[in-house]
Amino acid sequence: MKLSALHQSYLNRRRSPLDSSADASSKSFLAVFWLVLHCLCCLISLLLGFRFSRLVFFFLVSTPSSTNLYSPPFRPDLPPPRTDLSPPNATAVEAKTSSSSSRVVVGRHGILIRPWPHPDPVEVMKAHRIIERVQREQKAVFGSGGKSSRAVIAVTPTYARTFQALHLNGVMHSLMLAPYAVVWIVVEAGGASNETASIIAKSGVRTIHVGFDQRMPNTWEDRGKVEVLMRLRALRVVKEEKLDGVVMFADDSNMHSMEFFDEIQNVKWFGAVSVGILAHSGNAEEMVMSMDKRREMVDEEEERSSLPVQGPACNATDKLIGWHVFNTLPYAGKSAVYIDDVAAVLPQKLEWCGFVLNSRILWDEAESKPEWVKEFGLLNENEGVESPLSLLNDPSMVEPLGSCGRQVLLWWLRVEARADSKFPPGWVIDPPLEITVAAKRTPWPDVPPEPPTKKKDQMSLSQGNNVVVIPKQQQQQQQQRSSKVRKPKRRSKRNKHEAKPTDTTTQVSASTKHHQERN
Amino acid sequence: MKLTSWVLIFLACNLAFSTISAFRLSRSQPTERISGSAGDVLDDNPVGRLKVFVYELPSKYNKKILQKDPRCLTHMFAAEIYMQRFLLSSPVRTLNPEEADWFYVPVYTTCDLTPNGLPLPFKSPRMMRSAIQLIASNWPYWNRTEGADHFFVVPHDFGACFHYQEEKAIGRGILPLLQRATLVQTFGQRNHVCLKEGSITVPPYAPPQKMQSHLIPGKTPRSIFVYFRGLFYDVGNDPEGGYYARGARAAVWENFKDNPLFDISTEHPTTYYEDMQRAIFCLCPLGWAPWSPRLVEAVIFGCIPVIIADDIVLPFADAIPWEDIGVFVDEKDVPYLDTILTSIPPEVILRKQRLLANPSMKQAMLFPQPAQPGDAFHQVLNGLARKLPHDRSVYLRAGEKLLNWTAGPVADLKPW
After folding, report:
1. Which N-terminal stretch is annotated as signal sequence (chain B) (predicted)?
2. Confidence (pLDDT) at A510
């Protein structure tokens, strides 16, 4: 079928010169000539197959150009040129063709392929920058329904301890990712320390580091009270500096979802969100037992669900009618009292982290503040401020956020290390650690020596002591090798530093020989 | 004193108008009004500016054909059917032909479909000729002007040339009887036989409800740089490439098939409309004809159209400044498409997106039922209104004959 189509179109094209010639004898000669040519082409196509014969004929007849396979088709098909051809760029609306020819030609064109048809990394990067710019614009326009977004003022009470770096980094990353202007007020119990300052300096957001003179006590109850005082201290900073935005309480061990930051932009004066309570106990067995107990409870009374959620409760018309509070009954008597107790840590009745407020509530001038808000400046801290509802005259005016508390937007968790746990200050190993592991003792001899922390764990099982001791004889050699000990820790760069570990192994083996000699 | 009060009133009115136009925006995205005369033309209301008389043709020219194949209502040539329905119930319609400025002949020439759904144009010249003979013999208005104040909707591939193959279409040329009439067609290419001077180019029909139902929230980030779904090689008719799309689509494939920025393929996913809304640029290359519904879809979904078709005439080119909205790439520049697109400054891209977000732009591309102000029907009427009043030369003197009723291939002269 395709063969016949080709020959048909071919014959069509050929017919016109045939018709135009007037001489009878030349007509017959031409007819014979074309017939012979036609038979020749048939034979060629039989031999070579359809595609190759077309290519052969194509190359025989047309004059190929070097770079472009474009061959001008047969002109008789086109109408005679119009005499009133206006210049190509007459109309202002269209006009892209070059001045050489404004007429597009019908027929076969070449497929233009550039010399190296592969992606150019420079172009790809430029395109990604364009995509980023477009997405930023989209966020600005559509993100918060077109309203201008308000700054997020995060209040974090903290103190220097083993798990501080873990918790604070988590909060920091959440705040860095939030697509809003962030002011981070970090209140530190025991005074502002360099530890905390060095952690929050990496955030890149505006931070206000406030020292609080009291030290953090050792029981959860007292800690809660001190945290309340620290938060009020931070709110006083907001009032004094007249910071404008939405105040949220980011306790350093909590986890926030990104939707939380989007949702709190909708608060008018005072809002509440649902908080997922992760009251964990360190003891696995106890967890299992409590899970079984909970299942028994559920079988007996299905209504009383132990949903670990704290937050606003709404009726069918989405009006605030009360509060969901964490059910502490299953944990009665078994909750942790001291900070490093291996038991469930229970939250307060209403945790501060579940509330957000418009910072203007705290300001002095009472111009647009609603009447159901107490004057913050007159608040007496010694009266025992338990939850942020004490800042209000009328707690029923709180706005429930997150589709009326149905969405859990953040999680409350309290995890702390043992009271006597030590950690290198700033998490930098300097002075050098006290234990080295001989390379020969490790199962993989061609790998740099295990970081001494592994040995630390092994020792703690036996001794229950997390302290690392350097025998004084090896201290000098350790100092020489301290730079090299640090690098092998980065396992991913093993290939690059392959030469170096072998050096350390030889050095370490020398030291073990040395060590053995002494022993 | 009086002058200042008038100035104040004038300023107040201006303020009122600007706020009113601000409220017209349906979505909260800041859009840009097309500055200059073109922007105002889009919002023109044709009602009261012209009168159209619709001929009552026997139903074998329209309704019966539609009954035989209801697929005509949903394919991309459905504009001819909806145009008639719109005109029948529009306020511009007049039942008195003496006061009409324009005459409309409702004949569905693109409704003879193959089992696959593609229209066969072989009988269309005869059908058109038969319709014209009918109106010429029953009403005096055709002979009065030999059709110069009549308009026809011919949405087929090459308009009134009535053929799907370009060479054959050029060979036939526009139907001789339509030489003086105004043609409303989708095909538009400069210096081409099948585009008559004074034709109105319209967009192809795209189903408005279907596109509306696939809208996604505007804040979904646009993460695809360039998007295209369609054929690169027409394997059935042109396996090696070179004829189809003048080799442009094949060039796009060969140059960019492994480029991560180009999401191009021949698969037709179910999320086609949603993907377009997640793309920044949508390619609209020519196919066998230079126009395609992709342009309409790109405008509706806010994706900047990249038009790869030399000398194309886009719909409503006198009302919509396509240069400001889309990107034009010559067919010979296709191998450098990535360089061209990445070298567009981001501010220009954002401006194009704002222009595309203008709801009047999107309305002008659609044929909604029932008709809404500012849609493609009204733009056609605007175009017709702009051609009024008719020139003196339109009306023939007594006995003057300009059309050749026996011109054209012999097969076309057979009665239908």
Report:
1. 1-22
2. 42
Q: Which residues contact A304 (CB under 8 A, 6 or more apart)?
A: A297, A327
Interface of B with A in 15-54 (CB under 8 A): 28-30
**Both tokens assigned to B143:** 């002979």
| Chain B contact probe: residue of A16, A96, A102, A124 with most B CBs at under 10 A | A96
To test the contact with chain A by mutation, choose from B216, B278, B338 the residue with the greatest count of A C-beta atoms within 10 A, namely: B338
pLDDT at B50 over 70: yes
Q: A123: which chain B residues are within 8 Å (Cβ-Cβ)?
A: 261, 338-339, 342
Q: Is B259 on the interface with A (CB under 8 A)?
A: yes
Is the pLDDT at A321 greater than 70, yes or no? yes
Q: What is the pLDDT of residue A250?
A: 93
Domains, chain A: 148-282+304-412 (3.90.550.10)
Is A247 within 8 Å of A238 (Cβ atoms)?
A: yes
Residues 6+ apart with CB under 8 A from A366: A375
- In the three-class reduction of DSSP (H, G, I as helix; E, B as strand; rest coil), residue B90 is classed as coil
pLDDT at A370: 80
Q: Cβ separation of A79 and B30 shorter than 8 Å?
A: no
Least CB–CB distance from A126: residue in B247, B250, B342 = B342
CB contact under 8 A, B258 and A107: no
The shortest CB-CB distance from B243 to any of A94, A108, A113 is to A108
Taken in order B142, B147, B152, B154, the sign of the CA dihedral is positive
Per-residue model confidence (pLDDT) at position B47: 84
- DSSP structure string for A152-164: EEEEEEE--STTH
Mean pLDDT of A459-473: 43
Q: Which residue of chain B comes nearest to A102, CA vs CA?
A: B311
pLDDT band for position A287 (cuts 50, 70, 90): low
State how far the Cα of B347 lies from the Cα of A133, in Å rounded to an integer. Answer: 9
Cα separations in angstroms, B95 against A343, B38, B103, B133, B139: 90, 32, 11, 21, 14
* Best mutation target, A52, A58, A111, to test chain B (most B CBs within 10 A): A111
With contact defined as beta carbons under 8 Å apart, do B284 and B308 qualify? yes
Q: For all residues of chain A together, what is the average pLDDT?
A: 72
Chain A residue with CA closest to B169: the answer is A77
A253 is written with which tokens?
Answer: 């061990």
Please report the pLDDT score of residue B267 as a whole number: 92
Residue, of B362 and B29, whose pLDDT is higher: B362
Look up the pTM and report it: 0.61
What integer is the mean pLDDT of A461-470? 42
Give the mean pLDDT of A451-475: 45
DSSP character string of A80-111 = PPPTT---TT-SSS---S-SS---PPPS----
Residue A21 phi/psi, 5-degree rounding, is -75, 140
Shortest distance between the Cα of A136 and any Cα of chain B, in A, equals: 9
